[in-house]
Each structure stands twice: as C-alpha cells, then as structure tokens.
Amino acid sequence: MPFFPKSVAKSLSVAAFLAAACVQPSLAADQPGKGKTIRYAQSDSLGANYVTAQIVTAAFKELGYSVKLSTLSTTLFFQAAAQGDLDIATDINFPQREPAFRKVEQQATIVGGGLIKEGGVNGYLIDKKTADAHHITSLEQMKDPKIAALFGKGGKADLVNCDPGWSCGDVVDFQLDKFGLKDTVTSVRGKYEPLMVEAVARVRRGEPAFFYAWSPSWVTNTLVPGKDVVWLPTPFDALPPSVPNKGTALVSGVSGCAGGADPCRMAMASWNWNTVANRDFIAANPAVKALVENIGFPLQMWAAWERSISEKGASESHIRALAQEWLAANKPTFEQWVASARAAS
User: What is the Cα–Cα distance from 238 to 248, expressed in whole angstroms?
Assistant: First the structure.
C-alpha cells in the first residue's frame, strides 16, 4: 500500500486539505480550545504512534487549541502529568504500563478505549526455519536443553527481551520463572532496537533467533509471522500481580501461530495504545475527552504504517507524510471526530 503522493497534484491536494483544516474561519462555538494550549506528549519509542500523534494534533488544532508536542519516556510523562506539567499522551502501552500508572491514578486518568480498534498482540517468536526443522510449536519446548541450545551458547537459549526500563521485560522475566524456563533460557535485556536489528540479520542469514515482540510493530512487519517467524504459544496465562490480566491470553485469529494453533495463547491479553490525561485538564476540556473517545484506527492501518516506517525510515518528513496521506483519504471520518468533540464542549 503506497503512502507517499505519486504526483505533484496529489501532493498539492494533501497540502491544501491540511491548510484548510487549520485556517478556515469558524464560529466561536466551534472553537472550544481557542486561547488554550495543550501540552501533548508522545513516547520516546518511535513507531506508528508518531503518525497518530500528528493526526490527533491536527484534530486538536481544528478545535482551536494550540499544541506543544514533547517527546519523552512514559515514566517521565506519568510524573509530569501527575504534577500538572503535561496534559495528555495518546500512546501509553497497556496493560504493560499499568503498574506505573497506578502510582499516579489519583492525578491522571485513562481516556477512551485505545487507539487500535482491535487491539494488538504480544508474545514470543522464533525463526520459522528452525521451528519447522525441529517441530517447535510451543514455548514450553524451550525446557528441552537440546532445543534451547539451538538459540544460544552454553546450552541455553538467548531470548531478546525488552529494554531494562520497559515493564514488558518484567512480564517476560516473571513468565520465564513461572513456565520453568530459567534453567534453559537467558533473558537478554538491553537496548531493544539494536538487539532486534541483529536478530533480524540472523533470520535473514538463515540462523536461529528467539525474541519477544508485539504486533503491530516494525519487527513483525520486517519478520512476518507465518513467513519468516512463528509465534510460540505459552502454556498458560501468567502475569505479575502488578499487571492485571483483563481477559484471557488466548487470542483468536493470530497469523503465524506455531503449529497453526487457533486461538493462540500469547504472553498476555490484547494490548493497546491508550490515552492518559491529567484529571484537572480533561475535566476542564470535555471536547478533548470526546475527541479521544472517538478516535481509533484499524489494526491493518497500524501495521501498514509500521511497515512503511521500517522500509522507508522514521524521518520527521516521512511521519508527517503518512499522517497527511491518511488525513486526505479519511476527511469524513476526521470531520466526524471533530464534530462529536464540538458537540460535547
């Protein structure tokens, strides 16, 4: 699916739409944000969430708000939102961020049901070549030293886990213990992106690779489940007490689940990019609340954005172009979101 304009005329039409969205005169009643600035944050984990931040920003501006966009870690955002130094972020990963959110929930609140309409999935993957050759269809098989030795040195598998500061890594470490895998699997926690670049290279070379990932993401668009890699079903649901298990980890229709399992038991129930806002801010801005409650994008759209970013890079110009393309192609949807927000003000 192409994301960049194919002609000068198309580029001009996209630019014209965005310009019109920002400069067309509106009645005062249509501008609930007039004279107000939203201190909007985006995560320092770059992906399709940066595209949606541009779209959300366009909607805020259509409502009359000025927008100051900051990029920082989720941990720092929670602190800033609790102190009233930042207003809102729309890319907080739940349920992984639930433990940190609970510490600030008296000052901050979750708004809406998440920006991915169907939710996403998290789990463990290995390269399909090794899975097929050794009939690996479950994470539990990593208990076998012979199987584990295929993915590391010294008779233990090396599992690429999340950054040390990411709570998903704590979930993985907890599960390795609960699933009885600590004697055969080593959790490798470092900077996730460079570790995964090497894992991708190993798969491309036809070598074994074992890692934790999620979809939609650049990883699962670069290494496609069912083609390059497979998801390994977990033996049972298991999450740390600090991470609530809202629903079952059994997820239907997961493409590329090892052995063709359906449903496929993932690391946890479906995840989502949720919105968190300062409670005072959201109470004073019902238009923002209504807007966020209406915004949502299909999983396929997220996956396509992630694919484009992984193939063409994550430059600011490319991110903006993806957002502009969506805005030009989805004007009625965008206008409906804004109209609902105005009606709530």
Answer: 10
- Mean pLDDT calculated for residue range 36-41: 98
Compute the distance between CA of residue 307 and CA of residue 163 in angstroms, rounded to an integer.
22
Strands ordered across the beta sheet of 37-43: 66-72, 37-43, 88-94, 272-278, 108-111
Q: What does the block give as tokens for 64?
A: 């009359």
Residue 94, SS3? strand
Write out pLDDT tens, residues 281-306: 999 999 999 999 999 998 889 988 98
Torsion angles phi and psi, residue 61, rounded to 5: -65, -35
DSSP string, 284-296: H-HHHHHHHHH--
Range ranked top by mean pLDDT from 4-8, 63-67, 189-193, 269-273:
63-67
> Degrees (nearest 5) of the Cα angle 296, 302, 307?
165
Q: pLDDT class for 38, splitting at 50, 70, 90? A: very high
CATH of 8-118+272-344 among 3.40.190.10, 2.40.110.10, 3.60.150.10, 3.40.640.10? 3.40.190.10
The terminus-to-terminus CA distance of the chain in angstroms comes to: 37
Topology given in CATH for the domain delimited by 121-265: D-Maltodextrin-Binding Protein; domain 2 (3.40.190)
CA distances to 42, 93, 258 from 55, rounded to whole Å, are 12, 18, 36
Compare 50 and 19 and report the one with higher pLDDT: 50
Structure-token match 């959201």, residue found = 282
Instruction: Give the rounded percent of residues in the chain with a pLDDT score beyond 70.
Output: 91
Report residue 288 as tokens: 């923002």
What's the CA gap between 88 and 108, in Å, rounded? 9
